[in-house]
Design a protein that fits this description.
- Helix content is about 40%, strand content about 20%.
- It has 5 helices and 5 strands.
- Strands 2-1-3-4-5 form a 5-stranded parallel β-sheet, sandwiched between helices.
- α2 runs parallel beside α3.
- The chain is globular.
């Protein structure tokens, strides 16, 4: 695992972002966390940034988490992508798998965030 990593955290719920960031920092205090409330804001933020991992919500205004994942993968092919959502429909899980996006189910807690951080290697 790298000494320090940058995480892009995208969720339209400010409370979810805050909770996720808190758990991330409790598990890995060295993390650099970039936050965005929707896909457009995330793409604008990433225009001048690099991140090792993106944690994306599925249902957001504008573009969905999987639409955002597609765009992020084009510009940042090495970035690991995780979909963290309460939307656990089989179709969503299949679409995520087909795009190479790892699927994780909310609620946000130490176990699920630990599993997501394991993607960093």
């Amino acid at each position: 695992m790298s000494a320090s990593a940058t995480i892009l955290l995208v969720d339209d719920s400010r409370a979810s972002r805050m909770l996720c960031a808190t758990v991330l920092r409790s598990l890995r205090p060295d993390l650099r966390i970039l936050e965005a409330g929707d896909g457009d804001a995330a793409l604008a933020l990433m225009a001048g940034e690099q991140a090792d991992l993106a944690i994306l919500d599925m249902n957001m205004p504008g573009m969905s988490g999987l639409e955002l994942a597609e765009k992020l993968h084009l510009d940042h092919p090495a970035m690991k992508l995780a979909l963290l959502t309460a939307n656990a429909q089989d179709a969503i899980q299949r679409r995520a798998a087909a795009q190479g996006v790892r699927f994780f189910r909310k609620p946000i807690g130490e176990a699920v965030i630990g599993d997501i951080l394991a993607l960093l290697g």
